[in-house]
Amino acid sequence: MALSPEASSEVLLEPRVTVEPVSTRFDPSDERWARQVDELRRDLLTEVPQARLAETSSAGMKGSVTTLIMALGSAGVVAAMVECLRLWLGRDRTRKIVLRLTDGEREETLTLEGEGVNASGWDAAVAETIRAFADNFFRGRENGQ
After folding, report:
1. Which of 29, 30, 36, 96 could make a disulfide contact with 22, Cβ separation 3.0–4.6 Å?
2. For 114, what's the count of Cα atoms within 13 Å in the CB-facing half-sphere?
3. Where are the domains of the chain?
4. Distance CA 145, CA 138 (A)
5. Could you tell me which CATH number the domain at 3-56+64-142 has?
């Protein structure tokens, strides 16, 4: 679980996380993989109060991609998100989830893998990493940064 900084240009009122499912077993265009990704999105949209779908585009890509975005406004949102991610990752060890945490000025990436998701303390470690990012966001806003 490592965070890596990247630049971002959008100004946000609260930090948010974008969820990107990845498979080492399926091609991204495989219908079976698409069903698994849809399952994760449905779970997160149902269980996480502030989850929503958004169309995004990347430089060099034609068209847009539907991504799942969640505002990190409360501990309840983080706990619900981490629980959904753990359950989904635990069903297939070839799955990964890339979380892009952004506050509009900077972006950090956290990659979660299926190995060890049932280990004691996994939920707490992931939730603490996400909360620390959100806390830094709010602390920076309070200090006028």
Report:
1. 96
2. 14
3. 3-56+64-142
4. 10
5. 3.30.310
Tens digit of pLDDT for each residue in 51-61?
Answer: 888 776 555 54
What mean pLDDT do residues 131-137 have? 75
DSSP state of 14: S
What is the structure's pLDDT at 144? 57
Whole-angstrom distance, CA of residue 57 vs CA of residue 36: 22
CA 58 to CA 64: how far, in whole Å? 8
Residues pairing with 52 in the sheet: 69
The pTM of the full predicted model, rounded to 2 decimals, is 0.75
Q: Which residue has the tokens 């847009």?
A: 64
Q: What is the 3-state secondary structure (H, E, C) of 115-128?
A: CCCCCCCHHHHHHH
